[in-house]
Design brief:
This protein is mainly alpha-helical and 223 residues long. The chain is 58% helix and 4% strand. A two-stranded antiparallel sheet has the order 1-2.
């Protein structure tokens, strides 16, 4: 795949297969958690708690035992075949499947995180698929044009603003605040950053979520 094909691709199978191999376990889990927040209104309190624990686990703030306990608690969901397509009895069951993917351990998640958006339909460019593709690019960026951060840009103000943007997100959507990100971009520019990919992404309309490749780069370095 070339850079042009990556940027224009609307085939989620192609990008999915690329990310399944190259994305970190943390990125995959945050992807799954964001997909859960897309259907938050269908989740009961147990499932919502599982998503929150999975997010905390991704950032090292919850234990593997906590994750395993919640994964076991949300397991009992069964789908069925109907008119040649695999589906679930209710939107609540379909949403619960996303939670199962978010709460899986790393080994299982690497094989089955596609559960996060349900069926891997062959239909291209559906609204759900396009949404998932935007989310993947939000988390991964452009693998053909890797970004780098000059340590000089990481002033106390920049780091503090980046951490606040990561922590003080909008709930229950989990989206990062666009105003905070725009202020972060201004601070980066004042610190000497002129990279249009970095500044343009932070000033873009998003949606931006935890795992945003630019915010992660500022806080965590390459992942």
């Amino acid at each position: 795949m070339t850079e042009e094909e990556w940027l224009a691709c609307e085939d989620h199978h192609v990008i999915w297969d690329h990310l399944a191999v190259n994305a970190s376990a943390r990125k995959r889990r945050l992807f799954s958690c964001r997909c859960c927040r897309e259907v938050w209104h269908f989740l009961d309190e147990e499932c919502r708690e599982a998503v929150e624990i999975a997010e905390r686990y991704a950032d090292g703030e919850a234990t593997a035992d906590q994750l395993a306990e919640l994964h076991a608690a949300v397991q009992p969901v069964r789908g069925d075949w109907n008119d040649g397509e695999y589906g679930y009895a209710s939107p609540e069951d379909a949403a619960r499947v996303r939670v199962i993917a978010a709460a899986e351990d790393e080994h299982s998640q690497a094989e089955s995180w596609s559960l996060s958006i349900g069926n891997r339909s062959d239909e291209l460019a559906s609204p759900e698929i396009l949404k998932s593709l935007r989310l993947m690019r939000e988390l991964i960026g452009n693998p053909f044009r890797l970004l780098s951060v000059d340590p000089v840009w990481l002033t106390p103000a920049v780091v503090s603003l980046a951490q606040a943007a990561y922590d003080e997100r909008l709930l229950p959507s989990g989206e990062l605040d666009l105003i905070r990100l725009a202020i972060l971009a201004d601070a980066l520019e004042e610190a000497g950053c002129s990279d249009p990919a970095i500044l343009g992404h932070l000033r873009g309309s998003g949606p931006h979520v935890r795992g945003c490749h630019v915010v992660d780069l500022l806080l965590r370095g390459p992942e």
